[in-house]
């Protein structure tokens, strides 16, 4: 029989032969995957009967998402989705706003709840919905912007409905992770991001000598669970961060560099987003600095989340994985309760008994000497101590404050490094963000400009906010016509060292009381220009800013 175009339709026998050939091709492909899986497992040198799921280690990037499971129980019909996607060059202000609106629209359309952060540099979300709705949302993102084809959507089906978020919230932020690497300070992920290793490859690398593994999460997350490389393998380093903003300073310290020099550096975090920036930062530093090199910089694809789904009994993981959703923690799914109990290394900060759960939203009340502000790091309080901890919160102290740990003070010169590496080009344009760098603002000066101050600020409060970075003189900046203060000041620091320390903060926290709205002031160098004389002899520092005429 002929086709409308003159061709000849295949006979039944030819169709059967073709169908058989396709079936055999699929069978051969599956057999090939099985052989590759057996080879991979054999090369891992695992103990007998180790439970491993190689399919769970694979990224969903540029692949169809796994099909929803069949016959989910009505009480466990929630799917949790974790994902992030960096955008480089960054979205413009107009496109950033459009992205916020589009993602929110898609979430409402597909009945998705959860929370996310949307910055010019990309998107980071933890979401919940039914298995079908969450997949429809992910495919809609891919259809809206092809860059989401590169996204690894980490899905967990069959979660109890009590863990579903009630609403959808997407925050407009300047940075996806609080490294204080937003804007022109951001290292290039396209150029400097570390290599992604599958969970099985990462597991094998932990067994190698001349290797260090860095937990780039906050210290309170590490307290309840972390990788424990085998004896004779990688050396675990904990940066002991209260917040992610401590990481660049820790990484830039000579002590840290000495530990990383000529080593293979492994990094890990919950889902991978922090490692993207952290590995890029390290690679930028080693690329820009003479005499400081590493063998390699790698991260685990999909983070701890994928590793624990691959190594169902834990592999080299010890304890629980801290989560930022209603589940609170993630444990290896097939690790026994006795084994989990033996893994506990953390204690209730009130009674000091072993405990590895964060409940009650308790925080450290100690004052950090360098800033004069409360530490506010989450602390562990066991069930028996919930009431006394609530009644006497001033007694709560995190492990870092107990041992008096202080974060290194000096931040790396990231903008100078980017200039050296050609990431800031013609006219001072940053290739990562598209922003223009104002060269003069980066010149170190003993005088600082402090902006976005509240009108209720006083000289005493401002000095307190700068901690041990000493201010010599404060001049409130006023409107030329009304002579009234509008939220800015010049601060003459006691020394260049004090100015550098204050400038490294990027911004300073002014509100201290829990009920007060958090207010951050912006800090920048303000070099003396030309024949300018400052401070003027006639200038008298006032405790309160002028209110004008």
From TrEMBL:
InterPro entries, sorted: Nucleotide-bd_a/b_plait_sf, RBD_domain_sf, Rhodanese-like_dom, Rhodanese-like_dom_sf, Rhodanese_C, RRM_dom, TrhO, TRHO_N
Keyword Acetylation applies: no
Keywords: RNA-binding
MF terms (GO), sorted A to Z: RNA binding
Positions of the Rhodanese domain: 207-312
Pfam families assigned: Rhodanese, Rhodanese_C, RRM_1, UPF0176_N
Ranges for domain RRM: 446-528
Gene3D superfamilies (alphabetical): 3.30.70.100, 3.30.70.330, Rhodanese-like domain
Matching PROSITE patterns: RHODANESE_3, RRM
Top-level taxon of origin: Eukaryota
Keyword Isomerase: no
Protein name per its UniProtKB record: Rhodanese domain-containing protein
